[in-house]
Specification:
The complex is a heterodimer of chains A (about 110) and B (about 120). Chain A is an all-beta fold and about 110 residues long. Chain A is built from no helices and ten strands. In chain B, β5 and β6 form a beta hairpin. Classes of the chains: A mainly beta (about 110), B mainly beta (about 120).
Protein backbone atom coordinates (compact mmCIF):
# COMPACT_ATOMS: atom_id res chain seq x y z
CA UNK A 1 0.00 0.00 0.00
CA UNK A 2 0.89 3.67 -0.13
CA UNK A 3 2.12 3.86 3.45
CA UNK A 4 4.27 0.72 3.40
CA UNK A 5 7.92 1.57 3.41
CA UNK A 6 7.51 5.13 4.58
CA UNK A 7 10.36 6.13 6.87
CA UNK A 8 8.09 7.19 9.68
CA UNK A 9 8.29 7.41 13.43
CA UNK A 10 6.92 4.16 14.76
CA UNK A 11 4.97 3.40 17.90
CA UNK A 12 4.42 -0.18 19.04
CA UNK A 13 1.91 -0.98 21.77
CA UNK A 14 0.37 -4.10 23.22
CA UNK A 15 -3.18 -4.89 22.32
CA UNK A 16 -5.46 -3.47 24.98
CA UNK A 17 -3.03 -0.75 26.05
CA UNK A 18 -3.57 2.94 25.42
CA UNK A 19 -1.51 4.73 22.81
CA UNK A 20 -0.58 8.37 22.39
CA UNK A 21 0.49 9.78 19.05
CA UNK A 22 2.01 13.22 18.96
CA UNK A 23 2.20 15.91 16.32
CA UNK A 24 3.81 19.33 16.15
CA UNK A 25 2.31 21.89 13.84
CA UNK A 26 3.90 24.99 12.43
CA UNK A 27 1.30 27.64 11.73
CA UNK A 28 -0.10 29.53 14.70
CA UNK A 29 -2.89 30.79 12.44
CA UNK A 30 -4.25 27.30 11.87
CA UNK A 31 -7.93 27.27 12.56
CA UNK A 32 -8.78 23.62 12.72
CA UNK A 33 -6.94 20.34 13.23
CA UNK A 34 -7.78 16.87 12.11
CA UNK A 35 -6.45 13.37 12.71
CA UNK A 36 -6.53 10.88 9.87
CA UNK A 37 -5.85 7.16 9.77
CA UNK A 38 -4.37 5.50 6.70
CA UNK A 39 -4.44 1.75 6.27
CA UNK A 40 -2.35 0.01 3.69
CA UNK A 41 -3.71 0.46 0.18
CA UNK A 42 -6.27 3.05 1.16
CA UNK A 43 -6.66 6.79 1.31
CA UNK A 44 -6.57 8.62 4.64
CA UNK A 45 -9.77 8.41 6.68
CA UNK A 46 -11.08 10.96 9.15
CA UNK A 47 -10.87 10.05 12.83
CA UNK A 48 -11.55 13.18 14.85
CA UNK A 49 -11.14 16.94 14.62
CA UNK A 50 -10.76 19.89 16.94
CA UNK A 51 -11.15 23.62 16.49
CA UNK A 52 -8.44 26.02 17.59
CA UNK A 53 -10.65 27.47 20.34
CA UNK A 54 -10.82 24.09 22.09
CA UNK A 55 -8.15 22.14 23.99
CA UNK A 56 -9.77 18.71 24.16
CA UNK A 57 -12.28 16.69 22.28
CA UNK A 58 -13.39 13.10 22.80
CA UNK A 59 -14.76 10.54 20.44
CA UNK A 60 -15.28 6.84 20.60
CA UNK A 61 -12.04 5.45 22.12
CA UNK A 62 -10.16 8.50 20.86
CA UNK A 63 -9.29 11.82 22.42
CA UNK A 64 -7.52 14.73 20.80
CA UNK A 65 -5.62 17.29 22.87
CA UNK A 66 -4.51 20.64 21.55
CA UNK A 67 -1.84 22.79 23.16
CA UNK A 68 -1.59 26.02 21.21
CA UNK A 69 1.12 27.43 23.43
CA UNK A 70 3.62 24.88 22.18
CA UNK A 71 1.83 24.09 18.90
CA UNK A 72 1.29 20.49 19.85
CA UNK A 73 -1.49 18.07 19.06
CA UNK A 74 -1.95 14.54 20.35
CA UNK A 75 -4.23 11.63 19.64
CA UNK A 76 -4.98 9.17 22.40
CA UNK A 77 -6.42 5.79 21.49
CA UNK A 78 -7.85 3.79 24.37
CA UNK A 79 -7.76 -0.01 24.56
CA UNK A 80 -6.01 -0.47 21.24
CA UNK A 81 -7.17 -3.22 18.92
CA UNK A 82 -5.42 -4.94 16.00
CA UNK A 83 -7.53 -2.86 13.62
CA UNK A 84 -5.88 0.29 14.96
CA UNK A 85 -2.63 -0.64 13.22
CA UNK A 86 -2.13 2.03 10.57
CA UNK A 87 -0.32 5.26 9.83
CA UNK A 88 -1.78 8.28 11.63
CA UNK A 89 -1.51 11.80 10.28
CA UNK A 90 -2.34 15.10 11.83
CA UNK A 91 -3.47 17.85 9.50
CA UNK A 92 -3.87 21.57 10.04
CA UNK A 93 -6.40 23.67 8.20
CA UNK A 94 -5.47 27.20 7.30
CA UNK A 95 -8.08 29.57 5.99
CA UNK A 96 -6.66 31.02 2.81
CA UNK A 97 -9.43 31.86 0.41
CA UNK A 98 -10.78 28.47 1.31
CA UNK A 99 -9.64 25.81 3.73
CA UNK A 100 -6.09 24.66 2.95
CA UNK A 101 -5.36 21.30 4.51
CA UNK A 102 -1.70 20.52 5.20
CA UNK A 103 -0.54 17.16 6.55
CA UNK A 104 2.21 16.30 8.99
CA UNK A 105 4.73 13.51 8.64
CA UNK A 106 2.70 10.65 10.04
CA UNK A 107 3.31 7.99 12.70
CA UNK A 108 3.08 4.27 12.14
CA UNK A 109 1.19 2.53 14.96
CA UNK A 110 1.71 -1.21 15.36
CA UNK A 111 -0.41 -3.24 17.74
CA UNK A 112 1.28 -6.31 19.16
CA UNK A 113 -0.93 -9.26 20.15
CA UNK B 1 -22.79 8.58 -1.97
CA UNK B 2 -19.96 6.57 -3.50
CA UNK B 3 -17.31 8.83 -2.05
CA UNK B 4 -14.48 10.44 -3.95
CA UNK B 5 -13.79 8.46 -7.10
CA UNK B 6 -10.38 8.43 -8.71
CA UNK B 7 -9.31 6.81 -11.95
CA UNK B 8 -7.33 4.94 -12.91
CA UNK B 9 -6.33 3.05 -9.75
CA UNK B 10 -3.00 2.12 -11.27
CA UNK B 11 -1.09 3.66 -14.14
CA UNK B 12 2.18 2.52 -15.62
CA UNK B 13 3.67 4.71 -18.30
CA UNK B 14 6.93 5.34 -20.05
CA UNK B 15 9.04 8.38 -19.37
CA UNK B 16 8.05 11.27 -21.59
CA UNK B 17 4.45 10.24 -21.96
CA UNK B 18 1.52 12.36 -20.86
CA UNK B 19 -0.44 11.13 -17.87
CA UNK B 20 -3.91 12.28 -16.85
CA UNK B 21 -5.38 11.44 -13.47
CA UNK B 22 -9.08 11.94 -12.85
CA UNK B 23 -11.20 12.72 -9.85
CA UNK B 24 -14.90 12.95 -9.15
CA UNK B 25 -15.53 14.67 -5.80
CA UNK B 26 -18.44 13.98 -3.50
CA UNK B 27 -21.61 15.66 -4.72
CA UNK B 28 -22.21 18.93 -2.91
CA UNK B 29 -18.59 19.44 -1.92
CA UNK B 30 -17.06 22.71 -3.06
CA UNK B 31 -13.38 22.20 -2.24
CA UNK B 32 -11.11 19.76 -4.01
CA UNK B 33 -7.53 18.87 -3.18
CA UNK B 34 -4.79 16.99 -5.03
CA UNK B 35 -2.07 15.35 -2.93
CA UNK B 36 0.99 13.29 -3.79
CA UNK B 37 2.30 10.65 -1.40
CA UNK B 38 5.85 9.32 -1.57
CA UNK B 39 8.20 7.54 0.81
CA UNK B 40 10.46 10.53 1.04
CA UNK B 41 8.03 13.41 1.24
CA UNK B 42 4.88 11.95 2.77
CA UNK B 43 1.58 13.61 1.82
CA UNK B 44 2.21 16.78 -0.12
CA UNK B 45 -0.55 19.20 -1.09
CA UNK B 46 -0.15 19.99 -4.78
CA UNK B 47 -3.12 22.24 -5.46
CA UNK B 48 -6.58 22.94 -4.17
CA UNK B 49 -9.73 24.41 -5.66
CA UNK B 50 -12.71 26.14 -4.15
CA UNK B 51 -15.87 26.48 -6.23
CA UNK B 52 -13.88 25.21 -9.25
CA UNK B 53 -11.30 27.99 -8.95
CA UNK B 54 -7.66 27.17 -8.15
CA UNK B 55 -6.82 28.84 -4.84
CA UNK B 56 -3.24 27.74 -4.22
CA UNK B 57 -1.02 25.85 -6.63
CA UNK B 58 2.24 26.55 -4.82
CA UNK B 59 2.70 22.84 -4.19
CA UNK B 60 2.78 21.94 -7.87
CA UNK B 61 6.36 20.79 -8.35
CA UNK B 62 7.01 21.97 -11.90
CA UNK B 63 5.42 23.33 -15.01
CA UNK B 64 5.05 19.76 -16.18
CA UNK B 65 2.17 19.48 -13.72
CA UNK B 66 -1.20 21.10 -14.37
CA UNK B 67 -4.65 20.69 -12.87
CA UNK B 68 -8.08 21.72 -13.99
CA UNK B 69 -11.57 21.69 -12.58
CA UNK B 70 -13.96 22.45 -15.43
CA UNK B 71 -17.04 21.83 -13.29
CA UNK B 72 -18.05 20.92 -9.76
CA UNK B 73 -18.03 17.19 -10.43
CA UNK B 74 -14.73 16.63 -12.20
CA UNK B 75 -11.05 17.47 -11.92
CA UNK B 76 -7.90 16.32 -13.69
CA UNK B 77 -4.22 16.34 -12.81
CA UNK B 78 -1.96 16.13 -15.84
CA UNK B 79 1.75 15.46 -16.04
CA UNK B 80 3.42 16.19 -19.35
CA UNK B 81 6.04 14.92 -19.94
CA UNK B 82 6.20 12.37 -17.14
CA UNK B 83 9.47 11.41 -15.44
CA UNK B 84 10.43 8.45 -13.22
CA UNK B 85 10.60 10.73 -10.16
CA UNK B 86 6.89 11.44 -10.59
CA UNK B 87 6.16 7.88 -9.48
CA UNK B 88 3.96 8.14 -6.41
CA UNK B 89 0.41 7.68 -5.20
CA UNK B 90 -1.78 10.63 -6.09
CA UNK B 91 -4.81 11.32 -3.94
CA UNK B 92 -7.79 13.50 -4.58
CA UNK B 93 -9.91 14.72 -1.67
CA UNK B 94 -13.01 16.87 -1.36
CA UNK B 95 -14.74 18.79 1.39
CA UNK B 96 -17.60 21.18 1.93
CA UNK B 97 -16.21 24.49 3.04
CA UNK B 98 -18.04 27.51 4.39
CA UNK B 99 -16.47 30.41 6.32
CA UNK B 100 -18.32 29.37 9.47
CA UNK B 101 -18.13 25.60 9.36
CA UNK B 102 -15.06 23.39 9.17
CA UNK B 103 -15.52 19.98 7.67
CA UNK B 104 -13.08 17.19 7.09
CA UNK B 105 -11.79 16.22 3.68
CA UNK B 106 -12.76 12.84 2.27
CA UNK B 107 -10.15 11.02 0.26
CA UNK B 108 -10.34 8.80 -2.77
CA UNK B 109 -8.51 5.50 -3.01
CA UNK B 110 -5.64 7.07 -4.89
CA UNK B 111 -3.93 6.47 -8.22
CA UNK B 112 -0.62 4.63 -8.05
CA UNK B 113 1.54 6.05 -10.83
CA UNK B 114 4.67 4.31 -12.01
CA UNK B 115 6.83 5.99 -14.63
CA UNK B 116 9.45 3.69 -16.14
Amino acid sequence: GESVGLHLPTLSVQEGDNSIINCAYSNSASDYFIWYKQESGKGPQFIIDIRSNMDKRQGQRVTVLLNKTVKHLSLQIAATQPGDSAVYFCAEAIIQGAQKLVFGQGTRLTINP
Amino acid sequence: DAGVIQSPRHEVTEMGQEVTLRCKPISGHNSLFWYRQTMMRGLELLIYFNNNVPIDDSGMPEDRFSAKMPNASFSTLKIQPSEPRDSAVYFCASSKYTPTVNTEAFFGQGTRLTVV
